[in-house]
Amino acid sequence: MVEESEQDFSKKLEQLYRNEFRRVLATLIRLLGDFDQAEEALHDAFKAALEQWPQQGIPENPRAWLVSVGRFKAIDKLRRDSRFDTFDEIPAQLDIFIVNPEDEQDECLEDDQLRLIFTCCHPSLSVEAQVALTLREICGLTTEEIARAFLIAPKTAAQRIVRAKAKIRDTRIPYEVPAHEQLPERLNSVLQVIYLVFNEGYSASSGHVLARHDLSAEAIRLGKLLMELLSSEPEILGIVALMLLQDSRRAARTTSEGDLILLNEQDRALWDRDQISEGVALVKCALSLSGFGAYTVQAAIAAVHAEAPSADKTDWREITGLYDVLLRIYPSPVVELNRAVAIAMRDGPEAGLALIEVLISQGQLEDYHFLYAAQADFHRRLGQTDQAILAYQHALKLAQQEPERRFLQKRLAELHNK
Amino acid sequence: MKYLCLICAEKVMEQMPQADADEHYEEYREFTSNIRKSGHFVDCNRLLPPSAAITIRVRKGKISSMDGPFVETKEQLGGYYVIEARDLNEAIQVAAKIPGAARGCVEIRPIANDAQTLDVLGLD
Questions:
Q1: In this complex, which of A44, A47, A143 lies closest to B89 when CB atoms are compared?
Q2: CATH assignment at residue B29
Q3: Average pLDDT in the A316-324 region?
Q4: Residue A399 belongs to domain with CATH number
Q5: Could you give the number of structural domains in chain A?
Q6: Same domain flag for A20 and A76
Q7: pLDDT, tens only, A203-241
Q8: Do A47 and B38 touch (CB under 8 A)?
Q9: Quick check: helix, strand or coil at residue A364?
């Protein structure tokens, strides 16, 4: 056997951690019945792996190994702590000592993530708490990353998570997939969470790396899992379609240096045709069902882009029409901004500029750099260099992500050189 | 991420009956050994009582000093841990096990790791 370097091994472990920790945690929560104990057990299991695997090699089924080591570490702790407990507290925890072989079968483990999703998105938790908890416990984001994604202080996010876990424990929210008749109403917050996770992966809220592919892939995977369970729900099809269609452009949306490439400048040959055909088929299916919503309409917009042979040949009439529908289903200033961009493509930059000026005069989206980037782009296309520079500078002040900042700086440099 | 956990309580070790202090020390021995094992430990120590504190100010190049801590409160700063945790919630879980949390309270402060701070402090 070729001896592996220590570096290769630690890389392998890191990869394994990223692939497995969510599933292992979801199962440990079921086995231990407590989020905090499960997280500690997860931490201890990976610590043990880090110590033992370099000598003993990676076990054949690392996930089962981690679950079982995590469970025994937790039992160990309970035994040690039990001397502080009264006798009647112990029986409640006894069932974790019983190892049921079915517990560790792959099918059961697969379902654990779904159980965890529905528990994290339980209606007795606030929506903010559901989202924060799901992102941390299922997707493995840190509290600080969640705080950045929601533009709140880390301590606020931390308290949401602490309180949510306390509520799950105190009100004994069951760790289960809801019964069929409850499923649709439990679905909306789950979809919101999945889409936020996807976006965290597709365009991380700050930092140097634009795309964190594993998160997007995880969101798509979770969406597809839900789709299997609830194939008659159009919005699940819609959200999976939307994610697939956006993800299909991944390879085309950044340069090898990580710089952003706008939709109209992307090399369409790099778009993932398999994802596009899968996404388009799902959109068609979703639109044929009654009760489709905002995710399906957004997916339909993405599908029009995906099927256009070139930027010039995009059907902007169709797209603005879809934005009108979207605005009726989901009125929001961000949708208005996107509609303004589509109208500018259909009718020219003046029309877009007028709509953006309305948004600005209403004090909407003050901190949203895309608003000023769009305004700058319209001025630039109209040859209004000074106004374009001002707007790009404004956008640059608000943009947090490195690739977006570089894109804005590049545009600014081009205008200064005119 | 590193977090500073400041332990505050109405009584510091010097102000407790010896038997209580001894018991409390043993709790700290167990906790500290546990977080060394779990890999969360970075640094820690106990602070001498606020009566040993002196607060200084420099104004126009002159040092003026005052007895006592910067802020007088009923709860006193008695010690600290610096821990390494994956995020603020893990830090909360670890800090909740600091023995002082069951007697007084623990303030958790994320330690800065922005580029400017690291550069200025020569920490990168």
A1: A143
A2: 3.30.70.1060
A3: 96
A4: 1.25.40.10
A5: 3
A6: yes
A7: 654 444 443 556 788 789 878 878 876 777 899 999 999
A8: yes
A9: coil
Number of independent structural domains in chain B: 1
On whether both A8 and A19 belong to a single domain, the answer is: yes
What is the 8-class DSSP label of residue A401?
B
Residue numbers in A near B86 (CB within 8 A): 142
Q: What is the pLDDT of residues B62-113, one digit of tens each?
A: 999 988 888 778 889 999 999 999 999 999 999 999 999 999 999 999 999 8
Cα dihedral A241/A128/A327/A248 (nearest 10): -20
Residue B46, min C-alpha distance to chain A (Å): 25
Residue A285 lies in a domain: no
Domain that holds residue A369: 337-418
Whole-angstrom distance, CA of residue A158 vs CA of residue A177 = 26
Whether A159 and A71 share a structural domain: no
Q: What does the alpha-carbon distance between residue A340 and residue A320 come to, in Å, rounded to a whole number?
A: 9
Is A142's CB within 8 Å of B38's CB? no
B93 contacts in chain A (CB < 8 Å):
36, 39-40
Nearest residue of chain A to residue B109 (CA atoms): A155
Range of B37's domain?
Answer: 2-120
Clarify whether residues A134 and A96 are in a common domain. Answer: no
Query: Residue A105 CB: number of other CB atoms within 10 A?
Result: 11
Say yes or no for a CB contact (<8 Å) between B89 and A144: no
Look up residue A233 and give its two tokens.
């729900």
From A88, A104, A120, give the residue that closes a domain.
A104
- Whole-model pTM: value is 0.69
Residue A126 lies in a domain: yes
Interchain CB contact of A152 with B (< 8 Å)? no
Per the CB < 8 Å rule, is B93 touching A40? yes
CA separation for the pair A188, A381 (Å, rounded): 40
